[in-house]
Amino acid sequence: MSLFSGLSRPMKAAGLALVGVAVIAAVIGGITLTSGGGDSDTATPPGTTPTTSDGATQPSSPAPGSPSASTPPASSAPPSSAPASSAPPASQPGQTGQPGPGQPGGDQQASHKWVTVRVYNNSTIQGLAEQAAKDFRASGWNVSEVKGYPGRLPETVAYYRPGTDEEAAAKALALEFGFRAEPRFKEIENIGPGVIVILTKDYKTNDKDGS
Question: Cα 80 vs. chain centroid, distance in angstroms?
């Protein structure tokens, strides 16, 4: 007995139409189910490394925020190999241990020997001025004049004009040869420049300190 027995022709047509729609829906559903099942077979479970169709392992993508494997590490600047230059120590004055002229302990006399010296004989000893001039020159003094001096003076003295180079020179010469140094007196104030040594009988060659 047919499913549509007892139904009118219009009802049969509608039933056939419903059956056809159901069959088509079943076919479409089956195709969809089949496609979905295939996709589920090839899906990669979490935590596994995906592979290509030929079995090769695909490289995994780096996690977000992690440095890329292809990014080279930041290079650190090498420390400078140039050594810090140090200035050589400055040379210290007086390393030779010999003080220069004019310095404490130096040759005070030598620093004044360029000053001219005039030698006058005020004694009765013949050639005393010449002998004294020879002594002075032998010690490096610059003797420019040798002659006699009239009058009578008590002792040998080196005379100078205060405030000039003659003062230091006269004191150095007097210290070297063992007599005194004093400022010029009135009678010799206008004589030319230079230390004036007026000799008396107390000057003796063997008594000078510079011998």
Answer: 18
